[in-house]
Every structure is written in structure tokens, then in C-alpha cells.
């Protein structure tokens, strides 16, 4: 069953099936339970109509000292937060490409995401981040990176030193090659 589907005993994600902030909170709550106090801190950026409900859900999960609701911030401030973070976590499944994950990856952050999302196009499992088959796998990956500083440092080093193939220079070359091939 899809994680965002309503079923007896389950609730739809209040932020909708694309963002899956409710799933994000569950993953972080599970990782926090496994890592202990101080093992995980989540900064949530952006705003939406479900903010109050999500903050209530966060409190109900016991995440008052874990989740920080940052709201909308200027791009320059977001870049600073990326530099100060250890991991970028994306629970989305309906992401066509994963531009935010790509931005995080280019700042050096290891990316934790669902393998069944578009993020798999910009993240190589075990190299530039960790990809998971489901939400339980996201929790496992987050715990793994939280507990293994060597792995986290190795992935971050790779991400800083190895640009993704989706750089403007590479993409422009691919487009020009396609135009040449189409004209041939």
C-alpha cells in the first residue's frame, strides 16, 4: 500500500502525497528513538497551509527538542544551513527530478532519499548518499549516517570533490550532442 494512502488505522499525510512531511516526521521520530537525545535534529524549511497541524503532529511524536520549523528563508540563508548540516533527508516519492536534493548534494551533504523517486537520478547509493526502498529504509539510512561519522565524511567528501553529471556544462553538452544527432 502506498504510504500516503488512507487506510484503517492510518492517516493521509497532511502535507500531501508529494512533500510527505508527515512521513518525514515519522522517520525522524524513529531515528531519534534509535540514536537517542542529540542524535538527530531536523530543520524544516518552507511554509504551507498545514504548518500548524504538522507542528502539532511533531509535538505528539515527542519531537519538540528535535524539529526546528524555520519557515521560508532567503536563498543565501538556505545555502548557509546546507553548509552547517550533516545530511539532507527527502521522503518524497512523487519527485520527478529532485532539484532540492541535487542542490544539497552539490554543497557536500550526503542525501538520504527514496530510491523510487526522481532523487535516484542525482544520487548514487553508497556514493553520494543512501537510497532506501521504503520509509523504514529511510530511518535505517538516517541512523546509519548518524552513527557512522566515517561514512558521512566519505560521502560528503565525494559530493564536494565530484560534481554531479547534472551541471550546466554537462547538460548543455548533452543537449548540443542531441541537436547534432537529430540533424544528422
Secondary structure: elements and pairs:
Blueprint: H1 21-35, E1 42-45, H2 51-60, E2 67-71, H3 75-84, E3 88-90, H4 99-106, E4 111-114, E5 129-132, H5 135-147, H6 149-161, H7 168-183
Helix pairs in contact: 1-5
What does it look like?
The strands form two sheets. A three-stranded parallel β-sheet has the order 3-4-5. It has a two-stranded parallel ribbon with strand order 1-2. It has one domain: Glycogen Phosphorylase B (Rossmann fold, 3-Layer(aba) Sandwich). α1 (21-35) packs across α5. 33% of the residues are buried. The chain is built from seven helices and five strands, in the order αβαβαβαββααα. The N and C termini lie far apart (47 Å). With 184 residues, it is mainly alpha-helical.
Helical/strand content category: mainly alpha
- Unreliable parts: 1-17
Strand content: 5-15%
CATH architecture: 3-Layer(aba) Sandwich
Helical amount among residues, as a percent range?
A: 40-55%
- Please name the CATH topology: Rossmann fold
State mean pLDDT (0 to 100 scale): 83
Brief descriptors of the model:
184 residues; globular; 5 strands; single chain; disordered N terminus; mainly alpha; 7 helices; 11% strand; Rossmann fold; 3-stranded parallel beta sheet; two-stranded parallel sheet
